[in-house]
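User: I'm curious whether this sequence folds into something compact or stays loose and floppy. Could you predict its structure so I can see for myself?
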Amino acid sequence: MIPAAFDYERAKSVDDAIDLLGQHGEDAKLLAGGHSLLPLMRLRLARPSVLVDIDRLSDLEYVRDAGNHLAIGALTRMCDLALDPVLAQHNPLVANAAGQVGDPQVRHRATIGGCAAHGDPASDPTTVLLALDAEIVAKGPSGERVIPAADFFTSFFETALQPAEVLTEIRVPKLAAGTGWSYQKFHRRAIDWAIVGVAATVERENGSIRRARVGLTNMGMTPLRASAVEAALVGSPASAEAIASAAENAPEGTSPPSDTNGTAEYRREMSKVFVRRALQEALSR
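Assistant: Here's the prediction. I'll summarize afterward.
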């Protein structure tokens, strides 16, 4: 289909993008890689009056060691994240999940900031950011603010970004030595969104699980934390039996959709399977 008519502006800087968003109001949308917004526009599910193109702001493409965390520029492509040596050393979970997004064509266009700002609960990177307790940096007319991932994803395709704000950076923690990690997802084709996905990290101490973080993809209106699974694992033995028992709690607090890929009940059952697989892989690292 053909999108509804819109005007086009190319931002010269982040500040210029903020000014353009302020001038054109709530009907203006930022355009980065375009893989989230343009399909919605073609279906006329999104009808922005103005697109503000920030795709050429190369100063937002980076991965940096910032001491106690890693800083990722909002326009960093998935293909670059998947191969980044800093991520490989300090947080390979982010790199691994980025390498599972779509296909090579998608990964060479899609950006992590655009993915987060889109707020799709079926997105792989958003679940990873939530599971890692990442922080999202946004800049607007009133200055810069840092938003915890737990507060950023507010509803279906909605985030805490204000109309004239630009997502500029994502901050993820460095994984502590010995922390296991995994991202597992179930989909029919590489290009498809996850029917169910699970991000997990596990920290061990003296043969027991000291802490586990588990995020769920496409199990509700936003990416979700499997809080009941996390609580069940704290202090439990680092064993297959403990993982299998905790994984039974995966559907608690979720509201998965029913669609052509599976019913809500099917997703609930699959979430148990993939939570178990993700945790097992994390413990094996």
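Summary: The chain has twelve helices and 14 strands. The radius of gyration is 19 Å.
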